[in-house]
Amino acid sequence: MGSCIKTGCSLLRLSQTLGLCTSRRASTAGGIKKTTQLKNLLASPQLSFLMEAHSGLSARIVEEAGFSGIWGSGLAISAQLGVRDSNEASWTQVLEVVEFMADATDIPILLDADTGYGNFNNARRLVRKLEDRGVAGCCIEDKCFPKTNSLLDGRVQPLADAQEFALKIKACKDHQKDPDFCVVARVEAFIAGWGVDMALERAQIYREAGADAVLIHSKRSDPSEIEAFMAKWKNKGPVVIVPTKYHTTPTSKFQELGISTVIWANHNMRASVTAMQNVSRQIMKDQSLVNIETQVASVKEVFRLQRDEELKAAEDRYLPKK
Fold it and tell me: Model pTM?
């Protein structure tokens, strides 16, 4: 009997925990769904920003910093798993990470979904699974699977057939359940060494296939390729950029060009790498915590980010009093 009671309590607490997660995953800000938030953000005439996160904790930090949306970076997620950004992490492993991110936050997540992890069938299945987990949208790039990171030097960057990729976008849009779920088509023509005309042609095809926005990627140290594209694009739809390489360009310039959204794509992951390297080296050198303890977040702050107070209040409400 005692075992059954314990089991029943465990199941009750599990159902309550799952209910809490589902509630947060489906929660809205100001009564607006996460998918609608992202769609409005992409369509806004004002320049918007997405900040990179790669875990539930980093996603919560991004939200607390005041960002309106999160970029679920493929590079950052693979890096924190200790593998390369070459589809070495399976799509289900990425899905597990982004589910924790969605549960931890009330702002929309745009997932960097690489090439959709295969053909149209893989991509449309991914969309359904992302919707189930409260992810607001995905960004799919027109490369071949497995992908090669766009910022690697001296690597061949083969692109997918444009018509096939457009049909992949169409399959995603046709099979989403929520009409506001966003699919962003990432154009890699500049990364592959092709010119602005090819970038424009591909962007137009993807837009006609139903893409909610196009992401124009460039690894030049200046925004000249982006400027050339925007001059000919004529505001046919929202344009997203990732200015990792041309980071010295004033943000006001992006507003002038008519850019919809800027993604700060990998900086939380890179910041954490530097911090962990420095802390580990210092502790190894000192064989002591005396020079470190005041330089890192307190355990109390970690508990706050984990929302321990909510659990404490729930325990007071749901656990029997002795």
Answer: 0.90
Q: Which helix (H) or strand (E) holds 218?
A: none
List, in sequence order, every beta strand (DSSP E) within the chain. 48-53, 70-72, 109-112, 137-141, 182-187, 213-216, 239-241, 261-264
**Containing structural domain, residue 291:** 275-318
* CATH number of the structural domain spanning residue 130: 3.20.20.60
- The reply to whether 146 and 210 lie within a common domain is yes
221-272 pLDDT, tens digit each: 999 999 999 999 999 999 999 999 999 999 999 999 999 999 999 999 999 9
Amino acid identity at 320: P
In this model, does residue 194 exceed pLDDT 60?
yes
Contacts of 265 by beta carbon, 8 Å cutoff, 6+ apart: 52, 71, 73, 75, 76, 242, 244
Q: Are strands 109-112 and 70-72 parallel, antiparallel or unpaired?
A: parallel
Q: Where are the alpha helices (DSSP H) in 219-266?
A: 224-233, 251-257
- pLDDT of residue 10 exceeding 80: no
Task: Give the residue numbers annotated as catalytic, written as ranges.
Answer: 85
Reduced to 3 states (helix: H, G, I; strand: E, B; else coil), residue 262 is: strand
| Same-domain pairing of 47 and 148 | yes
Inform me whether the pLDDT recorded for 119 exceeds 60. yes
Contact call for residues 215 and 261 (beta carbons, < 8 A):
no
Q: How many Cβ atoms from other residues are within 10 Å of residue 154's Cβ? A: 4
Beta bridge partners of 70: 51, 109
In angstroms, rounded to a whole number, what is the distance separating the alpha carbons of residues 213 and 203? 9
Contacts of 174 (CB under 8 A, 6+ apart): 124, 210
* pLDDT reported for residue 28: 65
Give just the sign of the alpha carbon dihedral 109, 115, 118, 119. Answer: positive
The total number of residues shown for the chain amounts to 322
In the block, tokens 């969605």 appear at 102
Provide the residue type at 134 as one letter. G
